[in-house]
Amino acid sequence: MKTSFLPLLVVAAFAATCLGQTTPAEESKTITKDERDRAIAYLKETQQEFVTAVDGLTEAQWKFKASPERWSIAETAEHIALTEDRIWKMVNGKMMKSPPTPEKRAEAAGKDEMILKAIPDRSTKVQAPEQLQPTGKWETPAAIVQDFQKTRAQEISYLAETQEDLRSHFEEHPLLKTMDAYQWLLLNGAHGKRHTAQIIEVKADPNFPKS
């Protein structure tokens, strides 16, 4: 006697929906568990590094400049917060609200590792674009950190919960060219790590105030 498997497939799909799980077809449209876990862990790690680096600084330490052309910790922290907010709004707004273009996946393939290794490497200096240059937007160090933490928490929450296809939405980067939404969120972590290293360099300057 022939048995139809269609009812069983319907029941399985319904059960997966009720349990908050995804079917294999749905799963292919989302980032994998490993990708999700990796990005969340990286954003949490780099968040803590930044917060620790700026914790407990005096006003003199916050504003110290090793030389006139170099950024202070205050300016570097502002740049981190400005970039964080700008990238998150681009991903959550422009990128994910635009139609998916999965045919571009090949252009972004392999760039995860490039982002994680190349962006934090400070052996190559890059000029920040004008819109991300520090201008004294925040009145206090605490305000900068608070806004940064708020944005980073939104990104982490989004990565933990989203079922959207982050690998099929793209935006051009000035140097890395075509990057998908997942890679742009990784970039926020890598960018923060790069400039947290810059903050540590300022603190290591022999003329850095003791208090």
Explain what the structure shows:
The protein is elongated. Strand 1 (170-173) and strand 2 form a beta hairpin. The longest helix is centred in the middle third of the chain and has 23 residues, at 73-95. It folds into two domains: 1-27, no CATH class; 31-203, dinb family like domain (Four Helix Bundle (Hemerythrin (Met), subunit A)), CATH 1.20.120. Helix 3 (33-54) runs parallel beside helix 9 and helix 7 (111-118) packs parallel to helix 9. It has 211 residues and is mostly helical. Helix content is 58%, strand content 4%. It has nine helices and two strands, in the order ααααααααββα. The protein has a two-stranded antiparallel sheet. Residues 1-28 have low confidence and may be disordered.
